[in-house]
Design goal:
This is Enterochelin esterase-like enzyme. Keywords: Signal. The chain is α+β, with helices and mostly antiparallel strands. It folds into two domains: about 10-15 and about 290-445, no CATH class; about 25-285, Alpha/Beta hydrolase fold, catalytic domain (Rossmann fold, 3-Layer(aba) Sandwich). It contains ten helices and 22 strands. The protein has helices spanning about 30-35, 100-105, 135-150, 165-180, 195-205, 205-210, 215-220, 235-245, 265-275, 340, and strands at about 10-15, 40-50, 55-65, 75-80, 115-120, 160-165, 185-190, 220-230, 255-260, 290-295, 300-305, 310-315, 320-325, 330-335, 345-355, 355-360, 360-365, 370-375, 380-385, 400-405, 415-425, 435-445. Helix 3 (about 135-150) packs across helix 4 (about 165-180). About 50% of the residues are buried.
């Protein structure tokens, strides 16, 4: 993955189908933690003193069977629907999560992690500024220090995920935005910022400083969205929030809708158990080659990247710029959703690149562009326009750029895509080895 801008003028840009490869800390595979006789994890209620609230607070903590006190694990913090207490996840009349449910997740290939069920009733700010949510202060200032002092967990933000269902999801979103370096992964479950908050994010100087900061965009490695297919309450906010995050450079890599499920505890249960199986999966491998957006047993919308050796760019001095060219690996979008699942919509694939970094300095991803291409003849599939680079006054792949899209009439079957990728840099760019990653995201669209 190198860009020598010296002798050979060659560039190498790795491709990932999720952002999990960007900044996530390496997580050893499950086998590294396994104990031969470990059959069950433990679920324990703990109490800690909250300096923020000036009182004792509680949390439920699950440690998986692989927890052995010798290998620090990543941590996931979750808040329940209704911003209820930490025990709501376990209530039979609620999501009804059991110890056996959690053990099953980690016996089925999930990366071992410690799960912390947070008291969502500490307070929330659902309609105001995300920066003024007391929930985040309790988690970051009080609960995380307690967990790190009493459990063998990793202490870096790249090894933490935060998620929540419904009201708890807004708490998670607010915390994720407010504390840019504390979490790298986000689960938005049957949730989303309300219109007033989204408008505030686009206009408030303090929030803008957060959401446009390199710390916010650069640390994100995985974002997912899950909700019931019949959720007419939070569903629109979820899609609008994903679009808003993408506008600021944070793509949602996985979007799952549960067929026949509304805005209820069933959705919360499914989201928690499935979400735990998705967090931290990209860590350690460096490149993910497949992102799946499941739509239930009736069908699925998936994106697959073919042989992924990255993109090798080659070229040289074009007079007014350095120009290096290459080809994106084959990208296949397959849509087998039924009419109910698709709900009259189609799909779209977009891509965004990270900045090109080297020991000599950094090049903005605005210097990378592409010209999308369709490799098979499929009427109705439209490729995106050429993305101009900063040399020609464009923003390049520093912002989300469309690879292709299809409407409802042409969405089914498989579309095979690629793109001519190019780097255009100033002629006086310092020689060195530069690396970047292109992240592809697949969305169902109306």
């Amino acid at each position: 993955m190198s860009i020598p801008l010296r002798a050979h003028r060659r560039a190498r840009v790795a491709i990932a189908s999720t952002a999990a490869v960007l900044l996530a800390a390496a997580v050893a595979p499950a086998a590294a933690y396994a104990e031969e006789d470990a059959a069950s994890g433990t679920l324990t209620h703990v109490t800690y003193f909250s300096d923020t609230l000036q009182r004792e607070e509680g949390a439920w903590v699950y440690v998986p069977p692989q927890y052995d006190g010798e290998h620090a694990l990543p941590t996931t913090y979750v808040s329940p629907g209704g911003c209820r207490g930490e025990g709501y996840w376990l209530e039979p009349a609620g999501p009804a999560i059991t110890l056996e449910d959690l053990d099953a997740v980690f016996s089925d290939g999930a990366v071992p992690q410690v799960l912390v069920m947070v008291n969502g009733a500490v307070g929330s700010n659902l309609l105001g500024s995300p920066l003024e949510d007391i929930y985040g202060r309790v988690v970051v200032d009080d609960l995380i220090p307690y967990m790190e002092a009493n459990f063998d967990v990793k202490t870096d933000g790249a090894s933490r995920a935060i998620a929540g269902n419904s009201c708890g999801g807004v708490q998670a979103l607010n915390t994720f935005l407010t504390y840019p370096t504390e979490f790298s992964q986000l689960g938005m479950w049957s949730t989303g910022w309300f219109p007033a908050t989204r408008a505030l994010i686009d206009s408030d100087p303090a929030i803008q400083a957060k959401i446009t900061s390199p710390e916010f965009v650069g640390r994100v490695s995985y974002v997912e969205a899950r909700d019931g297919a019949d959720d007419n309450l939070a569903g629109p906010n979820l899609l609008a929030t994903a679009e808003l995050l993408a506008k600021y450079g944070v793509e949602t890599q996985k979007y799952v809708r549960f067929p026949g499920v509304g805005h209820d505890d069933v959705a919360g249960r499914l989201a928690l158990l499935q979400g735990l199986g998705s967090f931290f999966q990209g860590a350690g491998s460096g490149i993910d080659v497949k992102a799946e957006i499941a739509e239930g047993e009736a069908g699925a919308l998936t994106l697959t990247i073919g042989a992924n050796d990255g993109v090798t760019l080659s070229g040289g001095n074009a007079g007014d710029r350095l120009r290096l060219d290459g080809v994106l690996p084959t990208v296949t979008v397959s849509d087998s959703r039924n009419a109910i699942q698709a709900a009259g919509g189609g799909w779209a694939v977009s891509g965004r690149a990270s900045n090109l970094a080297s020991s000599e300095g950094q090049l903005s991803a605005a210097h990378l562009g592409w010209t999308p291409r369709a490799l098979n003849t499929k009427p109705g599939v439209e490729t995106g326009a050429t993305t101009p680079t900063a040399i020609d006054g464009g923003s390049g792949l520093s912002t989300s750029s469309r690879l292709a899209e299809a409407g409802n009439a042409s969405r089914t079957g498989s579309a095979v895509l690629s793109a001519d990728v190019f780097l255009e840099a100033p002629v006086d760019t310092a020689g060195g080895t530069y690396t970047s990653k292109i992240t592809l995201s697949l969305f169902p669209v109306d």
